[in-house]
Amino acid sequence: MNTQDNIILKVENLSKVFAVKPEPIEALMDINLEIYAGEIFGIIGLSGAGKSTLIRCLNLLEKPTSGRVFFKGRDLSALPKSELLKLRQSMGMIFQSFNLFQQRSAIENICYPLEIARVSREQRLSRARKLLELVGLPDRETATPSELSGGQQQRVAIARALATSPSVLLCDEATSALDPSTTDSILALLKKINRELGVTIVLITHEMSVVERICDRVAVIDRSRIVEVGSVTEIFVRPQSAIARQLVFPGGELVERLTGDTALRIVFDGESSFEPVLANMVLACQAPVNILSADSKNIEGRAYGQMLIQLPDDPAAQRRIHEYLKSRNITFTEEIWHDNA
Amino acid sequence: MTTLELLRLLGQGLLETLYMTLISTFLSYLIGLPLGMLLTVTDKKGLRPNRAVNLTLGFVINMLRSVPFLILAVAIIPFTRLVVGTSIGSTATIVPLVVAAAPYVARMIESSLREVDAGVIEAARSMGSSDRQVLFKVMVPEAKPSLMVGATIATTTILGYSAMAGFMAGGGLGTIAINYGYHRYNTGIMLYTVALLIIVVQIIQEAGLHLARRLDRRRRAE
Fold first, then answer.
1. What CATH number has the domain bearing residue B128?
2. ipTM of model
3. Chain B window 95-124: which residues touch A at a Cβ cutoff of 8 Å?
4. pLDDT tens across B172-204, in order?
5. This prediction's pTM
6. CA-to-CA distance for A163 and A109, rounded, in angstroms?
7. Chain B interface test: which of A61, A102, A104 (most B C-beta within 10 Å)
8. What is the separation, in whole angstroms, between the first and last Cα of chain B?
9. N- or C-end of chain B: fewer Cβ atoms within 10 A?
10. Structural domain count, chain B
């Protein structure tokens, strides 16, 4: 359950201003976030929205100008430097460009954080080997980063970030430099780490597809502010902010442009998955409908999205359709649609 | 002069040149390495930015580097005498060589360390590395191939300076070239010494680059 005691990371009134010329840049303004232990939390926004700065504020790689960050209830900015360095061992981080040590082999990369943590050599090696196994590269121990593909490098980076058994993994656009199929495999790996090791994952991305595939909750950031926070389902079904709508329906605001006459917007919120709603409705109501637009996605085997249908002019048929949708607990709203054609 | 005498002369000169070059390079690194690290660390984007230290150190280094080597060598003769008791011969030449080369080495170190990917440094910091660990366990090892190339260039530059010191009786092949070639118009001996210098530079250069390649664990992109 997501309760107050379960908050692992909390951001309070956080702002970050970069003092650059000619004008200071307000990268983050009044950010408030609560991230629960064990969840996969996404932060989505367009480039320049401030998400990279935000994720760096979570482990204080960037020092907030004002506001506070709490990790397991401890105020990070109040910690002495030595304590902060130690605490970073509980927060792994991976990056868009992998950032592996080029002069170290895969296993030596994974050993590095353990060296910092003063773990003995034998223990380092046995832990690193287990992690290579976990990320699916048990046979690439001695390979150097330049001998590995992008996806393999990110796997080594994930193993390295997990070496000190952190409770949080921060992912900075971890799949943005990868091709679609590699992205899928890395996301599957992150999900496995979350489920099997219970590691809380915070990821930033500009791709809605990443959020829909692995996140439990998501925050939408736009022009330095959080404009929306909610479960992935909520954001998909009822995006409140313009930026969230743009991210959910990147095809443009097609639905918004159709106005006039009688139309219904049907919302698929994951409950009405594989039932052929529309076909059943047409059969049950004995009324033809016209699909004006549809945008649905399959998330974890359930249907999410919206569909806009034009109703017949007959009021009785319209009533039957309303009744049918209500009886099936399907969310819908009436729309006015002008046929301009 | 018999061939044997000539060989003995050139052999003696070669040994002195190598002695000056290697000792000077070593001492220049002893001084230049920490200075180069200090320059990198105190840089605006460094681990511990410190404008005052960075500007002061940078100014002193630039000043020393702007003075032509022969003028510097003459100017610090009193200092050289203070350190080694004389101002002529190969041991005395080591003093101005180090004074001239240490700032040069510091800049080479700085430029090599600066090449280390900022993302890699950030990753190291995200794992809880201290500044010292970032510098010694990440930046220096990551810059190793580049540092080796720098050391090769520094060594050959110091070798060139040491030959220049021939003008002030600095010993080594430079002195032989000046004494026989310039003062006595013995072009033959001068050409032998120059040829010998070229061969030594070639060997150092090739060996250094070979070592740099062997140290580098990145594979060249196909």
1. 1.10.3720.10
2. 0.89
3. 117, 119-120, 122-124
4. 998 998 888 888 998 888 899 999 999 999 999
5. 0.81
6. 10
7. A102
8. 56
9. C
10. 1
